[in-house]
Specification:
The protein has 566 residues and is mainly β. It has three helices and 26 strands.
């Protein structure tokens, strides 16, 4: 097989980057693993505990029409070797504490307007003194250069308790640019986020100085990347790198530099070699300076035909942590088998493992109410055995999956001591086992109606922790979207969580939180080609449920406004 000069250049680039990552892994191989050093255990506290801040009540969920694992094509093709590129850490998704529902999109919902206009501005207001503003603009600088930018503001001047003491404000700015040729695409992204809120989970009645309970999170990020866009190339690749800086109102900062490489080489029509490599260099300053690095190399091979798709390889991960005196490397098997006995019905099974990277930013994205000076430790997923089935039968898609995994440093969130308005991160330093049963079914009627129902059940077997603090045992969602006519578009969502527990170490009492039922409705009505009106009703049931102990959420809240496209 002969390669063109451009292919050789791209392969050389991948080889250099991969070599650098492998060199970092070899250097980190020397020492044996060590457990995170826990703070001294005092009466009323538990060992290996840490402090965490919680994310606000934003309820969003991955688009419910997506299956857990993408169903591979029945016939192998060049397109089958194309990679899906992601610049994300591998999150610990077991019993994910985040509430994040999003309405299902239907491609035809706004097709006419989107085809005519690429830019828009939105503005709205609602109860709780809420104001919403959003804008998006894009343009073609040259034939092969495009840019776009967006801004979003959402604030509530009062919250569910004590008026302004539970107010919130969010501002997000994003700028993107792409330069594309027939062979590759260069991209650059700049982002700025600012969130302001208050620790309102204090005991009432009590007079509070608002400045003493105020928190502000500022995140600045810059990323650049290059990836192949030529589908005829036998070598496919994506290389992205970026820096994210986080700062809060308590003099904590975290500088995180991440580089991600994904590449594939077609060996034959049925056989593909894949490589994924990650390098994260992180410095966190919250009191003492903490240097935390993680390197990952994951070479795999994938064989596929009309009946079978098999992936096998190894995932080698090296982590260092100066503060916890950790320097270790682990290797995990990667095996996945997908069988297609008939039509588009799949049965799959496999085993994998990883070290899930926990950072201050990742913890804050789950629980924004963290106390200062959190001790950070990564979570090792020693192994994860899973099996299930997925498929499509006409307009119905489904997936069922059973997973049994072992973790080390499995974590939960619990109220701090003595200030219960803030949260620790509590680790189980020994082996923990989690059984997860997940089912999902979706139905689509042409491009008019789409519905997805999903349920997750969790069973936790822990060594040191009394309970999986603030993690649900049951979670569910039912998302629906309707196109009534060319002008009216409706989405309706139902979300349910139950089984969360928290402990007050001041009173030494365990509290089981009430089940969460959250119903949301959004209506978009197009008044013309360029103007539309929207109304969003959230938490229609109106319960001030608590996702985290002592933090009731807003009851029935609504936003209404107008959108203008141009």
């Amino acid at each position: 097989m002969s390669l063109s000069k451009s292919s050789i250049d791209h392969l050389a680039l991948i080889t250099v980057v991969t070599g650098s990552l492998l060199l970092g892994t070899v250097n980190a191989w020397a020492q044996q693993p060590q457990r995170p050093t826990a703070p001294p255990v005092r009466e009323g506290e538990i060992d290996n505990q840490e402090i965490t801040i919680e994310k606000n009540r934003k309820i969003e969920m991955p688009p419910a029409n997506r299956l857990f694992n993408k169903i591979p094509s029945i016939k192998p093709s060049t397109g089958q070797r194309k990679l899906t590129y992601e610049f994300n850490d591998r999150p610990l998704s077991v019993g994910d504490p985040k509430l994040s529902p999003t309405a299902l999109p239907l491609p035809a919902a706004q097709s006419e307007q989107q085809n005519l206009f690429n830019n828009y501005v939105k503005a709205g207001a609602g109860n709780y003194g809420s104001f919403y503003g959003e804008a998006f603009g894009s343009g073609q600088v040259m034939d092969n250069i495009s840019v776009d930018g967006s801004f979003k503001h959402l604030s509530s001047s009062i919250g569910p308790v004590d008026g302004k003491n539970s107010a919130t404000s969010e501002n997000r700015l994003k700028l993107n640019g792409d330069y594309q040729t027939d062979a590759f695409k260069l991209s650059a992204n700049l982002g700025y986020d600012r969130e302001a809120f208050y620790f309102y989970g204090y005991r009432r009645p009590q007079e509070m100085d608002r400045e003493t309970i105020r928190q502000k999170l500022t995140t600045t990020q810059f990323r650049i990347g290059i990836e192949n866009v030529d589908p005829d190339k036998n070598i496919d690749y994506s290389l992205k790198t970026g820096v994210v800086n986080l700062a809060d109102n308590y003099e904590a900062t975290e500088l995180d530099w991440g580089t991600n490489l994904k590449a594939s080489v077609g060996i034959s029509d049925n056989f593909v070699a894949l490589l994924a490599a990650d390098a994260y260099i992180t410095q966190r300053s919250d009191g003492p300076v903490d240097n935390r690095n993680l390197f990952r190399v994951k070479p795999t091979f994938k064989y596929s035909n009309s009946f079978l798709t098999a992936t096998f390889g190894v995932n080698a991960v090296s982590e260092t942590d100066k503060r916890l005196n950790v320097n270790r490397t682990r290797a995990f098997p990667v095996i996945d088998v997908d069988v297609v006995p008939t039509g588009n019905i799949h049965f799959f099974a496999g085993v994998d493992g990883d070290i899930n990277r926990n950072t201050l930013r990742s913890f804050l994205s789950e629980n924004r109410w963290l106390a200062p000076q959190v001790v950070l430790a990564n979570t090792e997923k020693t192994w994860d055995l899973y099996a299930g089935s997925k498929g499509e039968l006409g307009s119905v898609s489904y997936e069922g999956k059973v997973s049994y995994a072992r973790y080390r440093n499995f974590y939960g969130f619990n109220n701090a001591w003595p200030d219960t308005s803030k949260f620790f991160v509590v680790y189980d330093g020994n082996r923990s086992h989690v059984l997860t049963v997940t089912g999902q079914i979706g139905y689509t009627y042409k491009e008019v109606f789409r519905s997805t129902l999903r349920a997750d059940f969790y069973d936790y077997t822990l060594s040191r922790m009394e309970a999986a603090w603030h993690r649900p045992t049951v979670s569910g969602s039912w998302s629906n979207s309707f196109i009534v006519n060319k002008k009216l578009f409706i989405t309706a969502d139902l979300y349910h969580y139950q089984g969360m527990q928290g402990k007050n170490f001041v009173t030494n009492q365990i509290v089981t939180l009430q089940p969460i039922w959250d119903v949301n409705l959004k209506i978009d009505y197009f008044l013309g080609k360029q103007v539309s009106a929207f109304v969003s009703l959230n938490n229609i049931i109106g319960r001030n449920y608590q996702r985290y102990l002592y933090y009731p959420q807003q009851g029935l809240n609504f936003l209404g406004g107008l959108s203008y496209s141009f």
